[in-house]
Amino acid sequence: MTTRNVIDVIAITLVAAVIIILSARAQPDSLIKPTWNGGPPEPYLKPKQFSPTYIEWLRSKNHLPPEEFDHEYKGQLTVIRGTQDDLRAACPGAFKPGYSAIGCAKRRFDGAFFDADACTVYIVNDAALRSLNWDYEVVLRHERAHCNGWHHEPR
């Protein structure tokens, strides 16, 4: 085998390796960071750290509620994940035509009175949140605040 043949074989091998690596890329949900302490693996993708400045900006845009509504819900809170179509079906009229369905909250109604201890939050699935550049925690805190009695101007 000549030097030229060896170089050709190495080049072909490198190109094939790159093609294999690129075609086998993992999806973000399957990226797992190994742990060495025997604990469960952690995802590589972690929620954003919220700085006070970022929280203030989120509140100024009504993405996060005022502090008095931004707390755990004291009753039974149910979170249901789904597609944008699922959210539109669960919360008819909650989303303007042409706008993305990201989340909504509904207090339960037993036929005569609202059940003050039960609220259901609907949040679009992770794939849609990523594609819309929304953070799950921001959406959950926003919708949970509606369960806590917060109202804001429709957007």
Quick structural summary:
This protein is α+β, with helices and mostly antiparallel strands and 155 residues long. The chain is 36% helix and 19% strand.
Annotation keywords:
elongated; 155 residues; 2 domains; 5 helices; 19% strand; alpha+beta
What does this structure look like?
The protein is an alpha+beta fold and 155 residues long. It folds into two domains: 31 residues; 101 residues, no CATH class. Helices cover 36% and strands 19% of the residues. The protein is built from five helices and five strands, in the order αββαβαββαα. The strands form two sheets. Strands 3-5-4 form a three-stranded mixed beta sheet. Strands 1-2 form a two-stranded antiparallel ribbon. The longest helix is centred in the first third of the chain and has 21 residues. It is elongated, with a radius of gyration of 23 Å. The termini are far apart. About 7% of the residues have low confidence.
Topology (SSEs and partners):
Layout: H1 3-23, E1 32-33, E2 42-43, H2 52-60, E3 76-82, H3 84-90, E4 103-109, E5 114-124, H4 126-132, H5 136-147
Parallel strand pairs: 3-5
Antiparallel strand pairs: 1-2, 4-5
Global mean pLDDT: 79
Helix content: 25-40%
- Broad shape: elongated
The Cα radius of gyration reads 23 Å
Q: Which range does the strand content fall in?
A: 15-25%
- The total of helices stands at 5
Which ranges are low-confidence, i.e. pLDDT below 50, for 5 or more consecutive residues? Answer: 25-35
Note the run of SSEs as H and E: HEEHEHEEHH
Number of domains: 2
Largest sheet, in brief, is:
3 strands, mixed
Instruction: Please give the alpha-carbon distance between the first and last residues.
Output: 71 Å
The count of β-strands is 5
Q: Report strand order across the widest sheet.
A: 3-5-4
Helix and strand content put the structural class at alpha+beta
